[in-house]
Design goal:
Layout lengths: L4 H10 L9 E6 L8 E8 L2 E19 L2 E12 L5 E12 L5 E11 L5 H34 L8 E2 L4 E4 L14 E3 L5
Parallel strand pairs: 3-9
Antiparallel strand pairs: 1-2, 1-8, 2-3, 3-4, 4-5, 5-6, 7-8
Helix pairs in contact: 1-2
């Protein structure tokens, strides 16, 4: 079904709309091809901002056999770039069981802490890194479910803002700043 949950999920993943803007925001060139697209992620943590580069290195577009029957999967993977707080790869997939019609959103990957020269950032990442990752994973699952369900009830899909220079700011809501954000400290190069 065009506009069904699987198709809606694919659009949300393509545009990085699944992210919770209070935790992670993204900037990328809107006219860039998905494979090879560089994205600058802004990780947000209690008034701090961390700028983290990633590159989309793989597209998932396949029908595959699973224990529960054949599945249709679509999504993409990114690798972290130098200066990121972690070294690793994450994949985001929307999967439809072709027998039951059930649609799931899967995040998978691997990572390890990157070399972080700043003692304060390194200690903070050791204390709060895994907690923040779990918070992010739970938030994107909730946001994806909420957006897909809203679309199935007739709500328009969110569309990320595009600046005049072609830079896309995602997810929707990433442009609006909370009044307290002017107090946020920006770490321009956490890896240096």
């Amino acid at each position: 079904m065009a506009g069904g949950p699987w198709e809606t999920g694919c659009v949300l993943i393509r545009q990085y709309e699944f992210a919770e803007p209070g935790i992670v925001r993204a900037a990328y060139l809107g006219d860039s091809e998905l494979p090879g697209r560089d994205m600058l992620l802004e990780g947000r943590f209690f008034g701090l901002r961390f700028y983290l580069g990633v590159r989309i290195t793989g597209i998932i577009d396949e029908t595959r056999d699973a224990d529960s029957g054949p599945e249709r999967a679509w999504g993409w993977s990114y690798q972290t770039l130098e200066g990121h707080l972690e070294q690793g790869r994450l994949s985001y997939e929307v999967i439809k069981n072709l027998g039951t019609g059930r649609v799931t959103f899967r995040v998978s990957g691997y990572s390890r802490t990157a070399p972080i020269p700043s003692l304060v950032v390194r200690c903070g990442f050791r204390l709060f890194g895994r907690w923040t990752q779990r918070r992010f994973y739970l938030a994107i699952q909730r946001r994806m479910r909420s957006l897909v369900q809203a679309a199935q009830h007739g709500a328009a899909l969110p569309v990320p803002a595009t600046r005049a220079d072609g830079v896309v700011l995602a997810p929707t809501g990433a442009v609006a700043a909370h009044p307290v954000e002017r107090l946020a400290r920006a770490w321009l190069h956490p890896g240096s």
